[in-house]
Amino acid sequence: MRGEGDSTVEARIWDVPTRLFHWALALTLVGSFVTVRMHEMRLHAYCGYMALTLVLFRLLWGVIGSESARFATFLRGPRAALAHLRHLLAGRPDRETSHNALGGWAVVLMLGLVLAQGTTGLFANDDILFDGPLVPLVGKEVSDRLTAWHYRISDLLLIVVIAHVAAVIAYRLAGHRLIEAMVTGAKRLPAGVRPPRLAGPVPAAAALAVAAGTVWAVVNLLG
Predict the structure, then answer these.
(1) Which has the closest alpha carbon to 199: 70, 24, 75, 59?
(2) Measuring CA to CA, how many Å separate 132 from each of 44, 107, 165, 213, 221?
(3) Fewer CB atoms inside 10 Å of the end CB: C or N, the chain?
(4) Residue 190 pairs with which residues in a beta bridge?
(5) Which three-class secondary structure state does DSSP give residue 124?
């Protein structure tokens, strides 16, 4: 659909599974921070299991999912990142049909931190009433070390989340509507930019089933 007197078209770039993952992870991280401060460790553990499931899903979806969601699409080198930064500072229109060259590495960093946070949580303890499901596999001494790392990663993750929100606001001020695109799945692109191919619900359901089954097996069969 043509814009009003401009040379842009509306294109769908984000599939439903990617958008649901994004907002579900955001809510899960909020839940994780809130529950640990309320000392609701059982609920905190469930938030951790959900976060691990979501990250494993996203890792799979980054291989078999829509073109815009694939790591091969948005992971680019330093030159691409610098070129994107120059493009942004020059006030040029948004042409990205996936994560931009800077955002792509931010996605990987976020996924890595959440994966490390959730994994260490499986071995963590609170020295009072709660032990992670895999504590018996490593013993108290190792569990204490992993618990310390769990808290360190939590602090780092909070910093990254704040930086992510600040970056999204900065992009919005520059005219790049990242939030709107992640809500609706669509954004306006310069005419001639090819929109990405989007995958259907079947591979997404399969990826979610594998991710959820893996987390369930780790928690219930190894613990």
Answers:
(1) 70
(2) 11, 27, 30, 18, 13
(3) N
(4) 8
(5) coil
Q: Which amino acid is at 194?
A: R
CATH number at residue 139: 1.20.950
In which residue are the tokens 């609701």 written?
A: 40
- Cα Rg of the chain (Å, integer): 20
Q: In this predicted model, what pLDDT tens digit does every residue of 74-114 receive, in sequence order?
A: 999 999 989 988 888 888 888 899 999 999 999 999 999 99
Taking 80 as the threshold, does the pLDDT of residue 154 lie above it?
yes
Decide if 13 contacts 176 (C-beta within 8 A). no
CA distances from 119 to 29, 114, 125 (A): 14, 8, 13
Place of tokens 């984000």: 14
* Size of the chain, expressed as the number of residues it contains: 223
CA distance 163 to 161: 5
Domain for residue 170, yes or no? Answer: yes
Establish if 15 belongs to a structural domain: no
> Is this prediction's pTM over 0.70?
yes
Average pLDDT, the chain: 93
Task: State which residues form the domain around 148.
Answer: 22-222
Q: How many domains does the chain have?
A: 1
**In sequence order, which residues have a C-beta less than 8 Å from that of residue 104 and are 6 or more positions away?**
71, 74, 75, 76, 98
**Residue 3 reports pLDDT greater than 70:** no
- Is the pLDDT reported for residue 27 higher than 90? yes
Banded model confidence at residue 26, pLDDT cuts 50, 70, 90: very high
Token duo for residue 87:
């493009």
